[in-house]
Amino acid sequence: MEDSSIVDLFLQRNEDALTETDKKYGKKLLSLSCSITEDERDAEECRNSTYYKAWNSIPPHEPRQYLFPFLSRIIRHLSLNVCKSRRTESRSAVFVDLSDELEACIPSPDDTESKLDDMAIKAAIDGFLSSLPERNRLVFMRRYYYCDSVKKIADGVGISEDSVKVILHRCRQKLLSYLQKEGIEL
Question: What is the pTM of this model?
């Protein structure tokens, strides 16, 4: 079923919207949550909560052209919240590693002025991502948005793990340079 038709079901408050959403995106959402939470039961809970939040968010939102990104944003935040609530080193080590990798490029905002720059940084990152070749953009997004492991990315893209690491390293360097060129002070 097309995304637009699924959104219509949500707007009509038809429970088939949840069934159709699960048929089309359930496995992808579960995989995304599993890669973040590293626990299938937590991931299933996040997926169910995503459907609940989507039910309550549509309307006013009508994500006809971007239903999966809309859902993936919800499940990503829910999954990260699960990890934050655990607060164990063994479970959150992946996020510490990912944060450390990007820290040199994008510092964490600590004051109000930095928070005001968030929109400029978002626009700059969008511009940076659109400037990347498709494969590099895919590798970058899978690592830093979907939190996939280097091995999972390598298997999915069909390149070696070393190639993935090189692409990520070069992308981080290019991102830093791009942000500096755009006038984003780090």
Answer: 0.65
Which secondary structure element, helix H or strand E, spans residue 36, and what is its range? helix 16-37
With vertex at residue 25, the alpha carbon angle to CA 3 and CA 151, rounded to the nearest 5 degrees, is 135
- Which tokens sit at 99? 């944060």
List of residues 6+ apart from 129 with CB closer than 8 A:
137, 140, 141
Residue 10 burial by Cβ neighbours in a 10 Å radius (0-12, 13-18, 19+)? buried
Please give the angle made by the CA atoms of 157, 75 and 24, to the nearest 5 degrees. 65
Question: Which alpha helices (H) appear in 87-117, and where do they start and end?
Answer: 89-103, 112-116
Nearest to 147, CA basis, from 83, 78, 76, 90? 76
Provide the pLDDT for residue 120. Answer: 72
Residues 154, 160: contact at Cβ < 8 Å?
Answer: yes
Q: pLDDT tens digits for 19-35? A: 999 999 999 999 999 98
Domains and CATH numbers, the chain: 3-87 (1.10.1740), 93-181 (1.10.10.10)
Contact between 75 and 47 under an 8 Å Cβ cutoff? The reply is yes
In the block, tokens 């996040």 appear at: 46
How does residue 119 score in pLDDT terms, banded at 50, 70 and 90? low
For tokens 């700059």, name the residue. 124
